[in-house]
Structure prediction request, 420 residues.
Amino acid sequence: MRLGACFQRGCPSGVVLTVHVVPEIDLAAHQPGFRAFLVRGEVWAYWTVYDGAYEPVEVADAYLRRLRFGSGMALGTTRMYASNLALFFEFCVATGRSLSRAALELDRFMHYLVVTPIERRGRGQGQLRSRERVNHILVAVRELYREAVARGLLGGEVLRALFRVERGLRLPVGVAEGQEVALVTRPRHRLRTATRGRPATVSMEQFAGLMGACRTWRDRSILALLGRAGLRRGEAVTLRISDVHLAESSHEVGCAEPGPHLHVLRREDLDGGAAKSIDPRIVPADDLLVFCLDRYLLERTGVWEAASCDRLLVNLDSDYRGRGMTPGRVGALLCSLSRCAGLGEVVTAHRLRHSFASELEASGAGLVLIQELLGHRQITSTQVYVQPGAAALRAAVERSWSRTQAIATAAREGAGDAER
Prediction:
């Protein structure tokens, strides 16, 4: 709510000057202990920020609701933004800073993020945040200020403290040709990060070990969906049985796509599963995926609690037997399988997806094909897979050395012929 005050001052010329005083947003009225909180209805849900007294932070609530329902962001994305903002509000209250002052001194918050270990429970607890993670948190904070200024809750001077205006290109060079130089905004607070290399992948031996550690065909199907079809875990858990076409022809169900394949559609379940890509795509299924899914569908018929559930992947035991799996349950399964397989490290769902993309690139698939199969909207997201690996770099050096040796040998032979 904007609390504005207007003052009118009479001038000799009869001009009336109106001055709007934008109030300060003070977080001191909130109790420490900010946290991300899920607000759920019957058919909708979004994440917001509550304080220690379970009172919502209005500026964050309005921003997160707009992201969720006005911009169509996924539920998991708003959860990450809410967690980042809760961390920022906790810093402001602990240091006695208002939102305006915190914007002018955002470098203090950056320093706090860099030197303070992660306190929340879970993976990464007690470790320092990476530079990439710090930058992600700052993105949520900067966008919160944009929203507050747009709603008249803060003055525009905070944006001048957060952004600078300069002349430049809107897209990286080489992504789009014929770009014109224009005025663009750049964040003032951003840590320099190393150039992103090729993502870590799963070797064939590791993948075979994970398969051997599975106890059910559902678990093997999950590995195949992630590692042989490149699905995100959120996409895998939102698959419906009607999305899976395993026959050579699917004309009987009204699908003209030939061969076994999966339909990956934009869906979002309130338990956290979501297909991130807006555009639907069709992913061909290889023999391993078809074999695993065929056995799993037969295994699934023995779970009578799942008879009324249209989700492909369901829980086979526990109190949630027959209900659809969640992304968190898939992550826990991969942790368990990695431990049982004795890999010494946790294989994540995204690492399996990276392996699928890397195998496509190694087999000669072009950048556009990989982009389509992975569901990337921007080609820049796919370019990371065509970076040369260690083997390619070594092969290039060895070819250069072979060429140098050939030139040196030819020069020696030429010198010998001249002497004779």
In short: The chain is about 45% helix and 10% strand.
